[in-house]
Specification:
about 0% helix, about 140 residues, mainly beta, eight-stranded antiparallel β-sheet, single chain
Length: about 140
């Protein structure tokens, strides 16, 4: 049995995205769209709500690119254990805590490699993939599917 994710639950991105490393915590919240169903007083999250999670302006470095750049973090795909196998709301499976999801880091401004006396060299990688997890305050309502 897994806890059902609901509006206001935290989305935490892990710091490693391949060679890129986030500088500091990267945490936001998810907003549910299953307006007709509340879980412990908050709107339940269903499949598709994860795609609306965005965390912009997060500083990162990558390898020799030690002058920080910024990125936007999103959820690329839920883990296989993060959707109910049975419970649906409005035809969509509910999201459950599970283990980890696949996260996407999209570069907004690239980290730079110092190159004196020439101009710095920008990080050429535009997208990196990492992981993240849900942190829920819902300790009472669990999915039995």
């Amino acid at each position: 049995m897994e806890q059902i994710i609901r509006t206001g639950d935290q989305v935490q991105f892990n710091p490693n995205f391949g060679a890129a490393i986030l500088m500091g915590p990267a945490i936001t919240v998810i907003t549910g769209s299953a307006m007709t169903v509340k879980v412990a007083g908050m709107v339940a999250c269903v499949q598709g709500d994860e795609l609306k999670v965005q965390l912009p302006g997060i500083p990162y470095m990558s390898g020799s690119f030690v002058t920080p750049g910024t990125c936007m973090l999103t959820i690329q795909a839920l883990g296989g254990d993060q959707l109910s196998k049975k419970t649906k709301i409005g035809g969509k499976f509910v999201i459950v805590k599970g283990t980890t999801f696949t996260a996407k880091m999209t570069i907004m401004s690239p980290a730079m490699q110092p190159n004196p006396p020439a101009p710095p060299i920008p990080d050429p990688v535009a997208v990196n993939v990492g992981t993240g997890m849900f942190i829920t305050s819902n300790m009472t309502v669990q999915d039995k599917g």
